[in-house]
Amino acid sequence: MELIDQKTKKIMEGCKERARDAGLSFLDESLEYIVSNRDLIELSPKNMIPTLYDYWVHDVEVLKEKGKYELYPGNPYETVINTRPAISFYNDNNPDWLNVMIFYHVIGHIDFFQNNVFFKHTWEYDFTGEALSDKRLIARLRSEHGRYVDYVIEFARSIDNLVGYHRELSGLDHVDCKDVSKRLNYYFDVFLQEVKSIKINAYIKEIERYNKCLKENIDHAESLFFAEIETKYPEFEALYKKQLEKKIHRITDVMSYIMEHSEFLNKETNKWMKSIIEVVRKTSLFFQPQIRTKIMNEGWASYWHEILFLKDDRIKGHEVDFARVNAGVTALPRVGLNPYALGMRMFYDIEEMANKGKDLYDFQRIQDINLRKKYDQETNRGKQKIFDVRKNLCDFMFINFFIDQDFVNRHKLFVSGKRMNRQKMVWEYFVKTKDANAYRNMILNSLYHPPFIEVDSEKNKGNTLYLVHKFEEKPLVKEYINNTMMGIEYLWGGPVQLETSDALIKPKSKVPQSFQYFFGTQIDEQEKPDIHWQRVVYTMFNKQLTKKIL
């Protein structure tokens, strides 16, 4: 692995200038390395962070990937990581024209990393530097405590998807407003919404009334405002004082709670374990936004490498080569999901819709299909719209907001099904539906969605840790429950209980025999299980797991 030569660096600096002229925003510094496929195989298990701590699972992944490469050799084009400065890796056999195209793609990623709000907690520090420090810490602890270090890493990694990622982000956005008192905050945020549950129009009227008081007398606005509330809601003052007397309870994620409250970890002889858990937690938090923005991130980078590369005069003579490579990267598959292709087409569509004013409510009210096709307000807001989307959304919101029936029809998308042709003894794929809701749900179901598990401190009894799974129609994977809870029991130093929902499946209904054949093809039995969910509690005590139905 070595830095790119000065000639290639000069070409890439030219790419940066063109990208900034097009509106992209990123820091000046970046590092580019030339690597072999073998290097990429060894870096991949560490998420391309060369300085990440050593762990035996990484070595196993390297061996597995080397075996795959021997059977199916391939050349990954590039990889970029969100560090300060940004680091990207390029295959050692890429020609110059291909590196130009790839670097435009990389610039798209860097712009996304440094401007999307879901990466906000990664903006202020260099993760590779911290990772190196963490690596040295774990190496030193291994020399002192041996294999127990790897036990702690393993147990911590089993719950590293339970980090409070969204709470981390919300903490960065928390700003105390000096102009608004605690009484006003309680009135608008708690009393009206949770105690009284008033309708939205009534809530807005209260805001307008407060603004009117500010205009009339800015110095005594709050007194004038609450004078009416005392007669309208006489119970308000008592509830507000009761709220002030409550002890503020800081909600933390499972990993943080265990580190703070585990008697076992807080023993003087075991405090070194907390350092390892914090390393695993911090690493998980760093990679959370990349998992949650895969479609947007790859779509944004693909959009810009296509836009910028086609305008670059340095590609003359390689137009056909570019078309071949680009088609391989951004082609929409008939079955399956290509995040590059889907995300890029969505950004193109959002830009076109905004340019024509089709993103406004007036267009949504039009029912006539011909009027919808001809609608064009020539707003020229497309570029600004996609930059706003890039800044504020993650994959979940991106898919929910912008995949509609027009998008599905335009790109001839569908949800496919799979069935066995028993005459030919082959699997057949068929178009199940072209409905946008079904297609959107299929994409949403493919997104990263860790379980939402919290500590219920009120149900903690003695030294027992009580965890509650907020059920969202997605059960926990049963094969992982035993080992994961065993790891939590070790870190907690006592019994662990997990409240969750299990499926109670009743006998399945089948399609009548007379409908099982259609044009000589036997359709698989359309078995629809009748599922009911029941709350259960798993208990791990002395490495033994038991289950109780609530």
- The helix count comes to 23
Largest sheet at a glance?
A: 5 strands, mixed
Uncertain segments are 513-526
Kindly report how far apart the N and C termini lie. 57 Å
Mean pLDDT: 85
Which structural class do you get from the secondary structure elements? alpha+beta
Which band does the percent of strand residues land in? Answer: 5-15%
* Number of domains as seen in the coordinates: 5
Rg is: 28 Å
**Gross morphology:** globular
Helical content class:
40-55%
What does this structure look like?
It is a single chain. With 550 residues, this protein is of the alpha+beta class. It has five domains: 149 residues, no CATH class; 73 residues, no CATH class; 71 residues, no CATH class; 115 residues, no CATH class; 97 residues, no CATH class. It has a five-stranded mixed beta sheet with strand order 7-8-9-12-13, with helices on one face. A four-stranded mixed beta sheet has the order 1-2-4-3. The longest helix has 22 residues. About 3% of the residues have low confidence.
